[in-house]
Batch of 2 targets.
Target 1
Amino acid sequence: MKIRQLKAFCAASAIALIAASGPAAAGPGDDTLRAAMTEEILNLDYNYTTKREYIILAQLTDATLFDLDPVSQEYRPAIATGYEWIDDLTLDLTLRDDVQFHDGTVLTPDDVAYTYNWIADQRSESNANGVVSRWLDEAVVTGPNTVRFKLKSVYPLVLRDMANRVMLRKSGTYGEGDGINRDAMANSLIATGPYKVKSFEPGTELVLERNEAFFGKKPEIKTIVVRNIPDIGTQQAELMSGGIDWMFKVPLDLAESLGATPMATHLSGPDLRVGFMVLDAAGHTDPDGPLTNVLVRRAINHALNTPDMAKHLIGGSAEPIHAACHPAQFGCDQSVTRYEYDPEKAKALLAEAGYPDGFPLEVWAYRDKAASEAIAADLTAVGIDLNLRYVKLESLNQARAAREIPAYFGTWGSGGTADTAAIARIHFDIDSDRNMSGDTALADLVLSAEQTADQEKRKAIYSEALGVIADQAYWAPLFSYSANYLVSPNLDFPLDPDGMPRLQNATWK
């Protein structure tokens, strides 16, 4: 029995079992949304975490200086009511005077300045340090409701970082000197968001209750319970029996099978994660190897049936992509050179490059085995003697850092940031081991986009850079990903175009 058929069979069997025992009540009876997450929740302070699960929770518990509209990609006032660039390196912010922390303390400019200065300090060891220390020289209080940010250099993504990455804490939260406590907010979070922590058992359950003193629009649902349930089958059973109302990262087969019943609703929306192949154009693994030839790299692009991969292996709203970014990201120019699926053209290009009988190629991969195998099959079909090495991510990272990988299938989610900067810098900075192009001019071009605050100029720079990447076939772009959810039929859960789940926007039908 094929894997797809087996999953559907298992789902159908489980549905039959639940149905036989009679339906269980689920819904808004106690105004509590119960969500399941596979990954363990161990730390509530997003200043010290990174995973998607923690981003989702931070949007519930924290508020930031600005909000980013997921549709228009415009920055909206939040804790900051306005801003003014005094010059290219000086940004003044005006703050609301009615923002309260969850313990009732009123937020002040001192809290804002403290938070940013702490995170920019290397001693903080914050996961946000690398982002903030890149641009922040110092944050200083300039009035009863104003803060000035002094920048190290021109940086056009300051508002993005303020909207996405830095969660505000009370002055002195993390201590000082020998009394530094980086885990101060890990279990007992005091923040400013629409929900506050009622109880937390790390790795087991988090209970959030609506913050009635929240300065912004209050969520409609009073209580959210987040349960750690590592097994997807257990999540499925809980959803069908009414134990949970929401699950995400659902395998497509299960989402479609269970979503076809009255017990659950299948939602499929966009995700900023994209899949791609990176090719050793620089010749790190072989200075005279086939991948240093642009005709070979173009042949590889033509050999890959990305429309079928997107439709049948990723599914949902996944689509083939043609540029080294997600189409929803600012600056992701879609007018670059496209390599349509054409195996015969791929063979002709290989022959023109001097490889009519193909060549041996080792491709590394660490996730989405079905897609990895499809890539291998497509390249084999045009004559490439392909060896697929399917490994753990840690092994791939180590081998890539040692420049031992000629090609790999990778993915990138951009941290949920709908800006090409979130994918371009880390993959095309010349000092990044992810950059296998060896193109220093391209690296300089990519980084120059972060040296201007002129958005139209940034867009033009990214268009030029993406055009070079496509023309030189440094990547073989594959597909965007799809986010699959299963929710209670009683729950209305809106999906945003940036693929970020926002439980605070959920309502009961």
Target 2
Amino acid sequence: MNKITQNIRTLAKQLLEEKTVDSVIGFQQASLAHMTRPFMAKTIEDAQELVFNCNCRMNLTNYLSGLKNKVGIVVKGCDSRNLVTQLIENRINRDQLYIIGVPCTGLADKTKLLNTAKGLDIVSVEDDNDTIVIKTDNCSMSIEKEEILQDNCRTCIRHNPVIHDVLAGPAVPESEIQDRFKDVEKIEALNPDDKKSFFEDLLDTCIRCYACRDACPLCYCPTCFVDESRPQWVGKTTDPVDTRTYHLVRAFHDAGRCTDCGACEAACPMNIPIRVFTRKTIKDCVQYFGVEAGMDETLRPALDKFSLEDPQPFIR
């Protein structure tokens, strides 16, 4: 058991014992060794089920909707930025939260983990910050964490939570990232025909399961535009035009609010790199407005305010 997990369990037990909170939202080990699942600890015994490791890919702020009682919640740096956005948008009240911040050194991509195991069943995944040890039935392999990081973790600008009541471990160094948006710039440089082909190929395997939408803590419209029937904005099938429309419109709904937590991509059963859409909106908000979502509780999202001095080139 790593130190962060020990600290989270101790903190959760204390919070529940002292009735500071009614429950603690965190992660629990799932049936598959390379997966975790959301878990709500309501008793001291439950607190011993909480874990934190490189497989904690979900964004737990997604589970704060309709909050009635005071809860504790475990958040990584990117999650905490989502929390800030939800506070700004009056989705939740700060006095209902006790935030357990986790300094994060990055999460392991589930597909890369499985590929590393070369088809063997993974028995355990041990996270030692810089090194991941993958154990199968008949072997053990050690790999540098950097080699199997999720793509969003490679461009993360906030490893430590921007908002918290307590940290579950010592703060980690923040990264200096060169060419942070080179992936976006590569697509921007394509000619129109190649761009069209790129996005057609990208979404070719999409089954319209909406796992990306359901995993996103910012997709909280009472009725999603794809579910509207009066009027019906987009078809319900996997027709390529309808599928592209869904992904493009969802990206614009999250523009200026997305923190690139990667929950959408981690949830995709078809392993589609759908962050391609939101990465473009993040780049434009930084480039034209100098705004990073969720970094400041006093700043509204870029598309939630208007100024006559706003730059115009991005409209083209």
